[in-house]
Amino acid sequence: MNPNRTCFLLSTLLVTMPLSSQSFYGVQIGAAAPFTQLKDDAGSKPVIQGTAFLFLDRYDGHAFKPRIDYVSFRQGDFLKEALGSGHSLKVDIASLGGDYNYYFSEKSGEGFYVLVGAQASQARTNWQSPAGPLFKTRYGVSVSGGFGSILMPHVGVEARYTGGSHFARFDQSGGFYDNSACFVTVSLVLLF
Prior knowledge:
Largest sheet: 8 strands, antiparallel, barrel
Number of helices: 3
Helix content: 10-25%
Distance between the termini: 27 Å
Structural class: mainly beta
Strand content: over 45%
Strand order of the largest sheet: 1-2-3-4-5-6-7-8
CATH class: Mainly Beta
Number of strands: 8
Number of domains: 1
């Protein structure tokens, strides 16, 4: 990610922290399943996804959740069949963004909620072939939507759809072209 953007986003987080009535730190660990062309390249098997976040309560069921996400997809069967052995692909996606959460209980951090979010993403495609490695990094903006529930104090579950991140897809003629990386994540939420 661009260092200037990262510094700006982190500064924004530090400024907004005192504006909330209640703050929690948390992590999410879950499974991500790819869609669109990412599914062809990376396969349909779920992979592990990790998130670290800061939960900022804004009263009456409204909350903001700045977050850092990471997911790594591996080569799918489509590429193995098309290109044979000796080829491998990995797409790593890291993002920095935030979610707006609305809790129907009107108490942030309690019960069922819906979310919308946006994040700046960096997708790094690592293509290994008998001729040698190829690397491409793409930057993009993605959006998320989903729902979740805090089941007991400090423990919950969440499902989200993320779409719009861009990754470099390998072209069989030896080049790369841009494509969208869309995936669904189901995760365990832990608040501290």
